[in-house]
Every structure is written in structure tokens, then in C-alpha cells.
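Q: Predict the bound structure with adenosine-5'-diphosphate.
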Amino acid sequence: MFKKILIANRGEIALRVIVACRELGIKTVAVYSEADENSLHVRFADEDVCIGPPRSADSYLNVPAIISAAEITGADAIHPGYGFLSESAYLAEVCEACHIRFIGPDPAVIKLMGDKSRAKRAMKKAGVPMLPGSDGPVDGEEKALKVAWDIGYPVIIKAVAGGGGRGMRIVKSPAEMGNALRTAQREAEAAFGVGDVYIEKYLVAPRHIEFQVLGDHHGNVVHLGERECSIQRRHQKLVEESPSPALSDKVRRKMGHLVVDAAKAVQYTNAGTFEFLMDTDGKFYFMEANTRLQVEHPVTEMVTGIDIVKEQIRIAAGERLSFKQSEVTFTGHSIECRINAEDPETFTPSPGVIHAWSVPGGPGVRIDTFAHSECTVSPYYDSMIAKIICHGRDRHEAIARMRRTLEMTVVEGIKTTVPMHLKILAEPDFTAGKLSTAFMDRFVVAPKPAGSGSLAEAS
Ligand code: ADP
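A: Predicted complex:
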């Protein structure tokens, strides 16, 4: 087992990894930017190293600085968390060259899945159902129009290197294609440094359902069931739950099997998520595989009782999975609300100092956060400040727990999305489990005159 793990991340996920390491008796090294000097992940790690100025590009994305920090402190492994370098095949390769274990899949698998259009080909070969679309990247308007003609409108243009919902454009008619293609390519180039895009059929109001897998280096792969992440704004998840209210045990078993076989086909190791869209007829279509820990992993942990981060560490250390598929059981229901430092009406970021912070505990409540009274929410990074995860014997109880937890949450000094979550929970469609990626459209207010801070752009 590892003696010391460096965590190449910040915020709640850095703390989450520290928690797992402490329970496993492994020492930790925090890295931090100048903006995070007083953060809890720095306080609770055994050692810490400043890796640069606040801008992510100069600190949390700075591979040489992170590798030097690992070498100076004698860390034998790096956990990348999510975001930042978590899906960087380059970091995984440099780790290999420096004899530091990267806690994640092999670089070749990260590369394969990181290229969404290659990933789709590999998954199609493994028998996973796909949305009709272009076979590989599409560069010119003529080719794009031909693909769209073949599959039928609406279509969606997506970045080959995509992530975080960026570089996507919905195209409803041929007239929109040229502009949409150029905008998507430009956005992809700016966000990922690669302008390649591909096209697939756009589903109207599908559900986003994803499967969690774990694979060791001895050929064992298991799935931990699914998460439903249909409540999204601008393709970004807001609320996640497990199990999905839309899945029967039979479908779960069938999809689980399929995903395990697909993971085996690409020799997948460590934790991964296979994302699907489910249409209104209950048909599944593969979207992408994420080669990292997901923000929403706690809902799976709550229903399976499996600590995914500890499993990631054990797998990376070469251990066999300690359980078989038949030993994975699902108990009750779990829901997660992502609490962001944002105005709940306009969704504009609300960084600043938190003057008062209190989130009630009680039965079935888990809070993953770096926030506390008098802490600063930095404008430099993602606005998520906490994840509230509630577990109940059934979905009804999980929702009731989430509601009372949100109602009793006190955050002063900054604005948060707590009121928005209460609105979501109060929707009859939510309580009835009638979810889709179009769910949030109902909260979009009609456009107001320019400059009035409306939600117009959220259409
Ligand atoms: P990213 O990697 O940028 O997060 P994804 O491929 O995971 O992008 O898609 C994110 C979200 O975008 C999905 O959860 C869904 O809401 C929407 N989306 C993506 N592809 C489609 C599609 N073909 N049809 C309908 N919605 C889609």
C-alpha cells in the first residue's frame, strides 16, 4: 500500500481524498495556490506545498509544479480528484515516467475516452448502443449538412475533447448549421485547445443516466449501479440521485452487464463512469465515459456502502477488488444537491467571505464541503462550495430529508443556490420522479430588456 498520497486538487474533493487516506492510514500532501493558503485541505493534510499563483493554469494545472511537489515530499502516488488534471493522460504519463502512481486508469485508456469520437467507436465495437451521428470528427459545413440530413434534425454538435458542457451547439435546421459549426469549433479550440467537433442526433428531453464501474488490474470489473443526473442547467448537473426512479431491477442488471463488458473490452481499470441518455421510450444511448471520480459519487456510496475513493486507492496499489458483483447490494435512495456560491435567480457567481455557516446533520445526511464560517470563496475557481447528500429508506424519505436539511442550512455573507434547490424539490414532477434534462426550462423567465440581468441567455 502507498505510504503517502499527493492530492492534485482543492476544495471539497481534496478533503474527500484526505478522509479516505486517513481511514487507510496513508499520509497526505496538499498542494495549493496562493489563493488557497488558508483552506481546510491544507490544514488537514500532513504536508503541504504551494504550487503557484491563484490562476489554475499557473497552479492546479501546472504539471511540473505538481510533480516537483510529489518528488520533494516523497509521495508515492497522486490522486487527481475531478476537474483540473483528472483526465490528463499527460499527467498520468509523466507520473509513470517518474515512478509515481497515478490514481486512475492507464494513460492509453484516458486518451481513448478523452477523444469522444474515438470512444464512441470503441464502445460501438463493444456492442454499446449509440445515437446515430458522424463517424469521427466533422470539419466542413458540407459534410455536417450531409450527416444531419442522414440522421434528421435536430442534431447536436459536440467537441471531441469536450467536458463541462462546453463546445456544444444544438442545430434545428440546415440554415443554422454554418454558424453553429463555426461557433462550436471556436469554443472547443478556446476551451480545450482542439477545435475538432462531431455530430450526433439531439434527443429532446431525455434522461441522463450513468453507471459507475470499478476495475482492478487483475481483470475484475464490477458496476455499482446507476445515477440519474437529469436535473441540469446548461448541461451542468445540479441534482443527482441513485437509483434512478426510471429503472427497473431488470434494466439495471442488463445495463450493468453491458457496461461491465464494455469496460472489459477497453481494459478499463480504476473508477469510471459510463454516461447514457435515455429517451422517452426507455432506450439507452452511450454518450461518453469519464475516466475519473465524479462529483456525484457520494450518492452511489450511500446506497452501496462502498467507499469509492478507498477502492480507487486500493486498485491503484495493485490490490484486487475486495468484493464480487453479486456482493454489491443497493439499499434505499440517495439524492445530492450541489450548492453553488451563485445568485439563485441569475446564477451569477457570488464569491466572498462566508460569515456564518451551519448545515444540520441528523439521520441520513452527509455534507462534503470545504466551507466554514469566515472562509473565503475564491472567484478563481468553480463555484460549488458544498454537496448535501441525503439518504433515506426510499425516495420519499430522501427528499424529505433533503428538504429539511436545505431549510435549516444557514449561509451568510454570500448567495447560494439553496433556494433554487428548494424550488426544484417542491415541483410535483420532481417528487413524482418525472425527470428530464429539460426539467430546469420551467424556471427560465421570459427575456427582459438588455442590461436588466435577466435569465434570457439560459434558454
Ligand atoms: P460534457 O462532457 O461536456 O459534460 P456530455 O456529452 O456529457 O458533455 O453531455 C452533457 C449533457 O448535454 C447531457 O447530460 C445532456 O443533457 C446534453 N446532451 C449531450 N448530448 C446530447 C444529445 N445527443 N441529445 C440531447 N442532449 C444531449
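A: The chain is about 30% helix and 25% strand.
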